[in-house]
From TrEMBL:
Any Pfam family matching the protein: BPD_transp_1
PROSITE patterns: ABC_TM1 (PS50928)
PANTHER family hit by this protein: DIPEPTIDE TRANSPORT SYSTEM PERMEASE PROTEIN DPPB-RELATED
Keywords: Cell membrane, Membrane, Transmembrane, Transmembrane helix, Transport
Membrane-related topology note: Multi-pass membrane protein
Subcellular location as annotated: Cell membrane
Entry-linked CDD domains: TM_PBP2 (cd06261)
Protein family according to the UniProt entry: Belongs to the binding-protein-dependent transport system permease family.
Cell membrane keyword on record: yes
Protein name per its UniProtKB record: ABC transporter permease
Domain ABC transmembrane type-1: 99-308
Membrane-spanning segments: 105-126, 138-160, 180-201, 243-265, 285-311
Length: 318
């Protein structure tokens, strides 16, 4: 992996981040009508003109568009995402508080999905057409068909209401009570993991079957290598590239897909301020959260490419 290749990838990420920020900035100005009036309008009642003028001044909408854009980019470079129109505190503070909780939930769900989906896909490929393969494929189809909020509700009903072995939802900081924190994390992490585990299972199974059919596998077996070494060294490593790609894309999707899970389990992540901001038309908060999720998605794609380069050095020279 050369420094030139890494610098080129970082430049692409920076350029895409600037493009996303520009699109988000222009979105407000592309909305028909006065943005300040739209933000203050509730129940179809026209807002007070004085309030509209005050909000326009507060948002800087009276200034030329180029000046607003320059101030917007300057604020982003300083880490200033503006101030909430509802609570009147810095948007970056709310994101700094909520984002680690959402990332923790995504990380826990991803670990569960990897530990379940990838080994199951490997065993299903080795048992192609067998009982395990058919059963795992059926379970996968079922998991993909069940919406995440339905699964979350069923998990609460079974483990919290019926068996009473897990809490129904809520949040306790890890530093305050580690055991209770992990208990509260378990059910939402499982709900998050179900779709990702199913996708990883299918991709791993397909990639393994494709790798098993290659000539280098037959050659390795002909040389007398043990079946375990053939699978681990020659088959699994070559099958991991598409699996890593799907994992990265799905984890990026989870950044925006945890809203329902956090709502069902009352997990105070990014969904709470996002929903409140949309309902209250808190433009700076919505923009800050959208930009944060977008940049994280770009960084996640960069990590995926780095992993690809480690698994296959040819990628770094492409």
């Amino acid at each position: 992996m050369s420094a030139t290749w890494l610098a080129r990838k970082l430049t692409v990420v920076a350029g895409l981040a600037w493009l996303v920020a520009t699109i988000v900035f222009l979105a407000l100005h592309m909305v028909p009508g006065d943005p300040a009036e739209l933000l203050l309008s509730t129940g179809g009642v026209s807002p007070d003109p004085a309030s509209v003028a005050e909000l326009r001044e507060k948002l800087g909408l009276e200034r030329p568009l180029f000046v607003q854009y320059a101030a917007f980019l300057g604020g982003l470079l300083r880490g200033d995402l503006g101030t909430s129109l509802v609570d009147e505190y810095p948007v970056i503070s709310e994101i700094a508080l909520r984002l680690p909780r959402t990332l923790e939930l995504i990380a826990a769900g991803s670990v569960i999905a990897i530990l379940v989906g990838v080994p199951a896909g490997v065993f299903a490929a080795l048992d192609r057409g067998g009982a395990f393969d058919r059963a795992a494929s059926a379970v996968t189809a079922l998991l993909l068909a069940v919406p995440v909020f339905v699964l979350g509700t069923l998990l609460v009903l079974l483990f919290a209401q019926t068996l009473r072995i897990m809490p129904a939802g809520g949040f306790v900081p890890f530093s305050q009570d580690p055991v209770q924190h992990l208990k509260l994390l378990t059910l939402p992490a499982i709900a998050i993991a179900k779709g990702l585990a199913a996708v990883l299972f299918r991709m791993t199974r397909a990639a393994m079957l494709d790798a098993l059919a290659n000539d280098y596998v037959r050659t390795a077996r002909a040389k007398g290598l043990s079946p375990t070494r053939v699978i681990v060294v020659h088959v699994l490593r070559n099958a991991l590239n598409p699996v890593v790609t799907v994992l990265g894309l799905q984890m990026g999707t989870l950044l925006g897909g945890t809203v329902l899970v956090e709502y069902v389990f009352n997990w105070p992540g990014m969904s709470t301020p996002l929903l409140r901001a949309v309902e209250g038309r808190d433009y700076p908060m919505v923009v800050g959260i959208v930009l944060t999720i977008s940049v994280l998605f770009l960084l996640l794609n960069l990590v995926v490419e780095l992993v690809h380069a480690l698994l296959d050095p040819r990628v770094a020279h492409s």
